[in-house]
Design brief:
Largest sheet: 9 strands, mixed
Distance between the termini: 22 Å
Helix content: 25-40%
Shape: globular
Structural class: alpha/beta
Strand order of the largest sheet: 5-4-1-8-9-10-11-12-13
Radius of gyration: 19 Å
Number of helices: 9
Length: about 290
């Protein structure tokens, strides 16, 4: 069974500064780094490190060699990666001395996903294969519809959230993956129990994977309701923790683990990730998690 991560690839340009730059000010930066980012790339690498046969589909520009190398280096198949003459999606991130950040996001090639490309990619996958989606590329509803027709198992991570998601065909999704913010926005509720109740009413045929940070995670299907506590660790950077969780939860489901076992596996993986800096660099291997 193959896993396709159809998603975003970003270059994160990170500038460490004394303070956030104000209008009219020119400020020198203390440090500059370029890192691999994008929820699609993060989740693809997490799924590959978890031991899934993982394929990545998305578009990068000629300036995206770093992203391509990162995927290949983590054994993600990039046969369906497309190269464009347009700039790769990227973020310009100011980080001040207290660790707070300002982010300017440019969609770039992540917004160049057209119907023809989607159909071509999906022609290589069939019934029972898995597709993992996020909301950082365009035409996500079309991808969901086509994957549903092919009877693929669809994981949709409703992040980053925007109002358009309310009109997505989520009833066709096998697993809806949300955190507290996304769940509140989709349900219109603030209480965890009410959030889940509304989501199951809206999408009765969709399983819910609800991640709650330090409060753990909840898995809700028509037959089971599972709660798993978070592990107590010394967290130094939570970037990519949710993407790591998804990658390892998919591994558990594909291996036929119970929901509790799958959630526990994902919890352990994300607990390791938050003890390390970075997104891609923080994701553990399956051997580490075991």
């Amino acid at each position: 069974m193959k896993v396709l991560c159809f998603g975003s690839a970003n270059l994160d340009h990170v500038y460490k500064v004394n303070h956030f730059t104000v209008p009219g000010e020119t400020q020198g930066c203390l440090e500059y780094t370029v890192k691999c980012g994008g929820k699609g790339v993060n989740q693809a690498i997490a799924m590959s490190l978890a031991g899934n046969e993982t394929y990545f589909a998305g578009i990068i520009g000629n300036d995206g060699t770093l992203l391509k190398d990162a995927l290949v280096g983590k054994n993600v198949n990039i046969d369906y990666l497309k190269i464009s003459n347009k700039p790769t999606g990227h973020a310009i991130i100011e980080v001040d001395q207290s660790g707070q950040n300002h982010i300017l996001l440019y969609g770039g090639t992540n917004k160049e996903i057209d119907f023809e490309y989607i159909v071509e990619v999906l022609s290589h996958f069939s019934t029972g294969d898995v597709v993992v989606l996020q909301n950082e590329i365009n035409n996500v509803p079309y991808i969901i519809d086509r994957c549903y027709e092919k009877e693929m198992k669809i994981f949709f991570n409703a992040a980053p959230y925007d109002e358009s998601i309310q009109n997505y065909p989520i009833e066709k999704v096998t697993w809806l993956v949300v955190n507290e913010t996304e769940s509140a926005a989709l349900s219109g509720e603030e209480n965890y129990e009410k959030m889940l109740q509304v989501l199951k009413q809206k999408y009765p045929h969709t399983n819910i994977l609800f991640t709650m940070g330090k409060d753990g995670s909840r898995v809700l299907t028509n037959n089971e309701d599972v709660k798993v506590e978070a592990m107590k660790v010394n967290a130094i950077d939570t970037t990519g923790a949710g993407d790591t969780y998804i990658g390892y939860f998919v591994k558990g489901i594909l291996e036929g683990f119970s929901l509790v076992e799958s959630a526990n596996l994902a919890t352990k993986a994300s607990a390791i990730a938050v003890t390390r800096f970075g997104a891609v660099d923080s994701i553990p291997s399956y051997d580490e998690v075991k």
